[in-house]
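Late entry, evening session. Most of the bench is empty. Finally got around to the prediction I had been postponing all week. Sequence below, unchanged from the version circulated by S.P.
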Amino acid sequence: MDDSMFALLESRGWPIAVALLAANAVLLPARDRKRLLLPGVVLLLATLCLTPWHVQALAGLRTAALQYVVLCLLLYCLCRLGFLLLVSARPQRALFASTPKIILDLCQAIILATGFFFALHLMGVEASSLVTGSAMLTVVIGLMTKDMLANVFSGLAIQAERPFGIGDWIQYDAEKSHMGKVLEINWRATKLLTLDQAAITVPNGLLAQTAIVVYTRPTPISRRSIYFAAPYHVAPQEVHRIVMEAIADMPMIVKTPVPNIVTFDFSERGIQYWLRIFTTELDIRDRVDGEARDRIWYAFQRHGITMPRLQHSVRLDHVDTRQPTHHRSRRLRACVRALQSVDFFRQLPQPALGQLASRVRRKLYAAGELLMREGETGSELFIVKAGQLAIVKKTPAGETIEIDRVSSPGFVGEMSLLTGAPRSASVKAIQPTRCYVVDKEALSRVLNESPELAAAISEVIAQRHQHQADTMVAASAAASNGEPGDLLDRIRDFFRLRLL
């Protein structure tokens, strides 16, 4: 580079660099002024390197190498300070607020590289010769920068696709512990902050090669899963009700989506449940999970439910076969009382009633389960011990309507039990319901020993149908089962009873 060109650079470049430094000091926000430290130091070095051209005593230090150093330092200051003034100064700062940092860094790197090659050109060095001059050097540089270039291009791909952004919570592999809040995405890596308040720097190349779970997109709501166990003797729907009431007013969960719970598994500890709650407080998710578990424990304590523990026990019982146990006798008496709530069973003598009660089964149905389906054949009578049933029918238009509800001590299914007639309506539980079930086999033994009871049963049912002839249920029963007069014959045919 000749002296005239250098003098022009000195007379124009150095004053412009000083002016840019002053403008940045005024226009940059206070928190960004620390970025002027390095350009300021570089400008000071450039000034010191210019000293030999102004001090005749140091004329011997004027060399081409020193010229190149001054040139590079001044070009760096001009590029860096100009870029800061363009991007970070107050007037136009808002224009670049949404531009990813990696894009700005890349643009700055391109500007600095352009200045470097321009300096080489001024010194009479062709930049292309540096690349093509040595194949071995090119290979070495390529190998050295392979990972860096992979990270840079991966970072650019992340910024272009925008799978996540600053402030999102992500998990970058299968390890649950590898989860954090995104603090920064730069040209080489992405910085995360974990719940332990530890910063993790993940290379962009690694993020590009793995599945990324973004918990805060498309909405900031994420699901938390709470697993717990309850004893087998507590009905699942009762557990569901207790737990949902316990977490209903938790302040750290959202109302939509609605929290829900499912019966998850059956194990040695008991029935396993899976509670799903939704929150936007991922940074305190451990506290959210902990409060949910606390509420479940306190709710169980209030309802007398003990959390099951994994244990094995061996119990030896001495069974006295000479007389029924107190527990069996109590259950039998309760069953007899349930049978007596059915009008036609009250016609049975006490011995026959006790015999029938010994063959009755107990069944538990969850809310929403069907006990019987309209049009299907069946031979069971259901006596409600606890809970509630809904009787529904289909209209000619195909719609399903509810025509009645049955609670304890009501019953359904008597015509199918006595005659085998198809079900005239569907019956489903609308809450957890416990029933006594009398089937054809149990009643058949009683009627075969006392065939005359069939006449008494048919007379009671006929009287009831006559009395309820104006109701919808009786009307549909009459339509599907015929007149009450032939009911006795149908009972005898169904149970194959001999005529008296």
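Two things to note before I forget:
The radius of gyration is 43 Å.
The mean pLDDT is 81.
Will write this up properly tomorrow.
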